[in-house]
């Protein structure tokens, strides 16, 4: 791997999200760490989506304006600016390997594992990995193993950051991951100094939430969910019929615990915040349960919250009450001797930027970090741009020997070509013609196979549903009635699975809040209990559409009643968002 000539310079961290762009410059002196400069401005709404850069030219111009506002004495074209990308845009895997493996052999193993885990071609990915010494253990088979963290990101996403740097006139340094940057910032503040204690880092970002289990500064488990402060702002905006900017201004004014609010608007904001943050704490609990299922014993000593979500008053008490784990709001600047350039209200939103800017040598404990910019941009990064990468002069003492070898190889290739063209090709052509004839026959037989399979699957589904109804194995009439009454407008149900004890609903919507309302409404019926949203993510082909899956347990007593006796609860929220183009809502039975 290589890093395009990166060298020491000022420590600059850049955080780009859907609400703002923050640029921070840190410095460590003999007296201690301090914030040399800080500049921030609102990001253009159409330029950033779900934390990813859609319009690099616009963002690049804004970064150039931030450099002008920062007033750094070092020219920006000699600065390396480090950034962190949203966790949900990166593939992260932990790979156990034997300790002491040579670096070249380890690289081969990691790349082979990357082929198995990355859902896109390896040549379209930027990779990096790091060994985590804190995970070293002796396995039951007697082999001492250690975990390697593997991270992969599509080159097209990396290219957008290179384009931003080119337009801004600066140099792109490392590209880290938001979850690891948050751990690095909190380690800098001394939150992970307890040896062998397990701590949870919960980074409440604009576009999502990073959940990590940390031991000795190393992430033993990491997961990112698409629930963040943007979800809260959108819910407040729709419920109160106000703009997104107005809803963001109300969030820090509404404590969610322990305060009685006379203002009805703030009271409603606090109620919405409790709902959204309740969903986030549920995801944290599920992550902890999953991690517990992988190891024998887990005892979390503390949860450290960070990110813009910490602006919600009493959010730490809310997490502590819901999860029954000691929770604190992390202050990335508590070990700094000077953070004057920062307003107190902005400190919580700078966790990712601090983690990106901080040098590893500053930390009191070793952490793990990856650089998704080690392989640099693809060739398309600067197409149409005026700048581009500087030309690199390379000494080539190997040219003449390589030329001789090339000529010899060319002669050998010509001899092989004569044999192939005169002898081998005619024989192969006859074989190909026969194979093509056989292939045409096989293709004609295969044309009807999908239709027959589809007809068979449809009949099997109908048989399963009918058997369930006839044998009273599944309360279909009650379920259909409850689901139909609970489904808000704007939610499309694609598949409904029913067993004697459980309902599983999958579908799509353009609004996450409607999915939450659907779950709340269904849980309010006599038929369903313990309704949870198991999955909610946006489609890559159409980011307006959110795929979701929710599960609900069936009340056995209510299941035996007729649909008329279920008395479903009145839906708590009924909204009518814009319809999804080309989609219609409905129920579809499934195996």
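^ structure tokens above, recovered residues below v
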């Amino acid at each position: 791997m290589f890093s395009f000539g990166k060298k020491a310079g000022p420590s600059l961290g850049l955080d780009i999200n859907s609400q703002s762009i923050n640029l921070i410059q840190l410095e460590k002196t003999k007296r201690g760490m301090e914030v040399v400069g800080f500049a921030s401005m609102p990001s253009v709404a159409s330029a950033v989506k779900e934390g990813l850069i859609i319009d690099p030219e616009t963002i690049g111009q804004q970064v150039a304006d931030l450099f002008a506002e920062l007033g750094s004495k070092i020219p920006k074209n000699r600065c390396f600016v480090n950034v962190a990308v949203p966790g949900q845009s990166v593939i992260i895997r932990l790979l156990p390997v034997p300790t002491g493996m040579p670096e070249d052999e380890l690289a081969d193993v990691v790349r082979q594992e990357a082929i198995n885990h990355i859902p896109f071609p390896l040549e379209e990915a930027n990779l990096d990995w790091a060994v985590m010494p804190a995970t070293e253990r002796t396995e039951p088979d007697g082999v001492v193993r250690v975990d390697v963290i593997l991270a992969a990101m599509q080159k097209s996403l990396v290219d957008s950051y290179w384009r931003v740097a080119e337009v801004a006139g600066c140099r792109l340094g490392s590209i880290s991951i938001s979850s690891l940057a948050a751990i690095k910032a909190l380690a800098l503040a001394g939150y992970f100094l307890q040896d062998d204690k397990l701590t949870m880092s919960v980074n409440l970002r604009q576009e999502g939430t990073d959940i990590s289990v940390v031991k000795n500064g190393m992430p033993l488990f990491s997961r990112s969910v698409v629930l963040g402060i943007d979800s809260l702002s959108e819910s407040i905006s729709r419920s109160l019929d106000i703009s997104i900017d107005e809803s963001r201004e109300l969030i820090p004014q509404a404590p969610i615990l322990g305060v009685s609010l006379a203002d009805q608007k703030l009271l409603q904001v606090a109620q919405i915040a409790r709902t959204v943050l309740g969903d986030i704490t549920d995801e944290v609990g599920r992550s902890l349960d999953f991690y517990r299922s992988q190891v024998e014993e887990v005892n979390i000593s503390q949860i450290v919250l960070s990110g813009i979500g910490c602006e919600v008053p009493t959010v730490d008490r809310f997490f502590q009450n819901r999860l029954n784990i000691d929770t604190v709001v992390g202050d990335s600047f508590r070990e700094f001797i000077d953070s004057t350039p920062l307003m107190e209200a902005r400190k919580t939103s700078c966790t990712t930027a601090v983690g990106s800017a901080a040098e590893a040598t500053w930390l009191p404990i070793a952490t793990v970090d990856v650089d998704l910019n080690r392989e640099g941009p693809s060739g398309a990064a600067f197409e149409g741009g005026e700048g581009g990468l500087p030309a690199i002069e390379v000494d080539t003492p190997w040219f003449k020997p390589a030329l001789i070898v090339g000529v010899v190889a060319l002669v050998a290739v010509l001899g092989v070509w004569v044999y192939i063209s005169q002898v081998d090709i005619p024989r192969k052509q006859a074989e190909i013609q026969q194979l093509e004839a056989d292939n045409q026959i096989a293709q004609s037989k295969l044309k009807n196979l999908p239709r027959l399979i589809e007809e068979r699957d449809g009949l099997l589904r109908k048989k399963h549903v009918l058997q369930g109804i006839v044998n009273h194995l599944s309360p279909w009439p009650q379920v259909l009635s409850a689901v139909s009454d609970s489904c808000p407008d704007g939610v499309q149900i694609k598949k409904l699975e029913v067993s004697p004890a459980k309902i599983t609903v999958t579908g799509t919507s353009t609004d996450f809040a409607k999915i939450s309302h659907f779950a709340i409404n269904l849980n309010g019926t006599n038929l369903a209990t313990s309704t949870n949203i198991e999955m909610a993510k946006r489609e890559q082909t159409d980011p307006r559409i959110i795929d979701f899956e929710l599960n609900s347990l069936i009340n056995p007593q209510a299941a035996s009643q007729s649909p008329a006796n279920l008395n479903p609860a009145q839906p708590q929220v009924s909204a009518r968002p814009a319809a999804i183009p080309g989609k219609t809502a409905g129920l579809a039975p499934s195996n």
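The domain at 194-329 is CATH 3.30.420.40 (Nucleotidyltransferase; domain 5).
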